Amino acid sequence: MTSDIQELAGRYRDILRQAVFLVRSMDAEGELSIGHLSTLNMVAVGPMRVGAIARNAGIKVPSATEQIIKLELAELVERVPDPADARGVLVRLTSKGQDVREAANTRRNGSMARALQTLSGEEVQAIAAALPAIAKLNEALAGGHGTGTQQDQPAQGHNPAPAPQPTKD
């Protein structure tokens, strides 16, 4: 690995860490925490096991279970039997959860769009052009490349591009 790639990796992680902190604070007054919204966004693609939610969120299963219990009490998600494994359960979005998720994402996307409007046209184009490469990098990280491990795939063939996680420095 070249020193240029190592330097780029460090710079990218620094920018990503800062972005995660800023995105988390964008809607601090909203009804959902970023963790809760992240969970709703994950299960919006399809039902998932708690372990897969925990892995994608970068948290332990007991913490994911606590989040799911809170979301269940608010009637935003529900647990259903896993048809592929009678011993397992899947977490899926309710219609109320879908409505709340869409409203929170719309509000947060509006905040991001207002921030993007402060950039020049060239800067916006540069960000747009970088998105496919960032998505590919996320896929490489989700597949275990560069981490030394191969992560399990979520239930039912669900394989979302995980949200970037803050580094633990």
From TrEMBL:
Annotated region described as Disordered, given as residue ranges: 142-169
An example molecular function term from Gene Ontology annotations: DNA binding
Name listed for the protein in its UniProt record: DNA-binding MarR family transcriptional regulator
All residue ranges annotated as the HTH marR-type domain in the record: 1-136
Gene3D superfamilies: Winged helix-like DNA-binding domain superfamily/Winged helix DNA-binding domain
Origin species: Arthrobacter stackebrandtii
Keyword Calcium annotated: no
Keywords, alphabetical: DNA-binding
PANTHER family associated with the record: CONSERVED PROTEIN, HTH-TYPE TRANSCRIPTIONAL REGULATOR RV0880
Protein origin, superkingdom: Bacteria
